[in-house]
Amino acid sequence: MEAVLRRYMADGIALTGDVRDFMTATFGDASADTLRTLLSDASSAERDSLLDLVFFPDQALQLAIEPVLECHGLTEEAVSLIAARLKAAPVATGLCLPGVTDLVPTVMPAFLVDAFLARLNLPWQPAAALSEVITGLDTHPLSPTHDHEDGRLRLRVHLRNAGLRQTPAQVLFLGDFFERLPLDDEDFVDKLDFMLVFLKEHEGITNFYQALMDRKKFLFRHLLKNRQTTEWAARTNMETRIMAGVRPSYFDVHAAERSLALIDRIAMAVFGRTEWLDGSPRSVDLGNYAEPPDPAELVDRLS
């Protein structure tokens, strides 16, 4: 694994848009000269932040090391040994900027090694039953080149990044998830990412259908409340809103609506059912007041 990491880094690291944006926002530009100046200033806190972004593992690196991890599972002790070696003999690489031929040489500093390896989640392996399900899937739709093996590795990387404890209930659910949701759906990866985060947040439960419905009801209630508050705010002036103690809403309506759609699709595919909620907002008479209303009354009506 150490050799694979060193070979990958030796080929150079292309700075992502996020890294270049950070350089522009913090230092005024993202030129090679600015990069060289920053890397030479060991006392700069901004340099450390920049290097943390540079050495944040990307998907290309994860795909490169996944075959090794599949064949040779690593223990925590083995990862600690790799860390010690990477600190003793820092990994050399070159940073590549768009339109610039020459690489800017640098090394991975010792203080970043532990975080770098932790983000790769090297010791994690899929449970045997889950690995068997993945092996039997036609994963070519998950690959940009429609390559079955590449798609399978990408699926493993998604699971590795999630780092689930893989309780028996989680493994059973994921088996059903992969077998019942078409991998060629255009939003399959969105559904997978949503579900992996959801499972991570609910590692102690076994009734995932009920947990999904509870999340659906929670989002639905907040959507309705947001709609009611927005409609009321459009009919009132700032003074009334301040007196009522109603703060501006920062609820992400688009994200909530997207989550509701994903929940329904997942529930229908895996469980064959979902709970249909009344999409019409409950009528709340907020009135058209000639005089500023009592704030406590308004808060009570909006609750």
Give a quick rundown of the structure.
This protein has helices at residues 2-10, 17-27, 32-40, 45-54, 59-71, 76-88, 110-120, 128-135, 148-162, 168-180, 188-201, 208-235, 238-244, 253-271, 295-302; strands at residues 13-14, 92-96, 104-107. The protein is mainly alpha-helical.
How do the strands and helices of this protein lay out in sequence?
Blueprint: H1 2-10, E1 13-14, H2 17-27, H3 32-40, H4 45-54, H5 59-71, H6 76-88, E2 92-96, E3 104-107, H7 110-120, H8 128-135, H9 148-162, H10 168-180, H11 188-201, H12 208-235, H13 238-244, H14 253-271, H15 295-302
Parallel strand pairs: 1-2
Antiparallel strand pairs: 2-3
Helix pairs in contact: 2-4, 5-9, 6-7, 8-10, 11-14, 12-14, 13-15
Task: Please give a structural write-up.
With 303 residues, the protein is mainly α. The protein has helices at residues 2-10, 17-27, 32-40, 45-54, 59-71, 76-88, 110-120, 128-135, 148-162, 168-180, 188-201, 208-235, 238-244, 253-271, 295-302; strands at residues 13-14, 92-96, 104-107. The chain has a 3-stranded mixed sheet. Helix 6 packs antiparallel against helix 7 (110-120), helix 8 (128-135) packs parallel to helix 10 (168-180) and helix 13 (238-244) crosses helix 15 (295-302). Residues 280-293 have low confidence and may be disordered.
